[in-house]
Write a structure and sequence with these properties.
By secondary structure, the chain is α+β, with helices and mostly antiparallel strands. The chain has 6 helices and 5 strands. The chain folds into 2 domains: 19-58, no CATH class; 72-185, no CATH class. α1 packs across α2 and α3 runs antiparallel to α5 (155-175). The chain is globular. This is Na+/H+ antiporter subunit E.
Length: 186
């Protein structure tokens, strides 16, 4: 795994240092802890914080900073288009089921343009949530998603799905652009 690089003001780069204990992660894990117990007491809160810190130290993750790159209007367009795609795909899958004819499925490889792991994960999750497609493999080394797609009768249909997946990636990049150093160094 290549290190994430941070760009300094003078243009040089240095490896990013991760803080193992991230306050938002501790807060989130503590809330999950309290939800699992189903009640709130001082002892459970302290125990939850201790467990959350232990989890963060044992399983450190690199920070994901999306707040500084968040574009609200583009995010609204991304969500709106995702909902439209969700409804459209649901209707198409219903049509495939109701037609009761043989269906040709395919595994379609989509080579993502971005090298951001965050973008790849988000695109994969969104594509899997849309009926008719599911991610069967994600290759981090090449940033390629392999998706099982329902009702792909010919190469043109596979190419149309590939273009739609790349369009989704572009909408994600417009809504949540990764920082340049992470893009180049990931």
């Amino acid at each position: 795994m290549s290190p994430v690089l941070r760009t300094r003001r003078d243009g040089s780069t240095r490896p990013a240092r991760y803080r193992a204990v991230q306050p938002l992660a501790v807060l989130w894990l503590t809330l999950v802890w309290l939800a699992m117990w189903g009640e709130v007491s001082p002892l459970l809160v302290v125990g939850g914080v201790l467990v959350a810190v232990a989890v963060c130290v044992a399983f450190p993750l690199p920070p994901i900073d999306i707040a500084s790159g968040l574009r609200p209007l583009a995010l609204a367009r991304l969500v709106a288009r995702f909902l439209v795609d969700l409804v459209r795909a649901s209707i198409q899958v219903s049509g495939v089921v109701l037609r009761r004819r043989p269906v040709r499925n395919a595994v379609v490889a989509v080579d993502l343009e971005s090298s951001s792991d965050f973008v790849m994960t988000l695109v994969a999750a969104m594509l899997s949530l849309i009926p008719g497609s599911v991610v069967v493999e994600a290759r981090r080394s090449t940033h390629t998603l392999y998706l099982h797609v329902l009702d792909v009768p010919d190469e043109e249909s596979a190419e149309r799905f590939r273009r739609d997946a790349l369009d989704l990636e572009q909408r994600v990049l417009r809504a949540l652009p990764p920082h340049a150093p992470e893009e180049a160094g990931a």
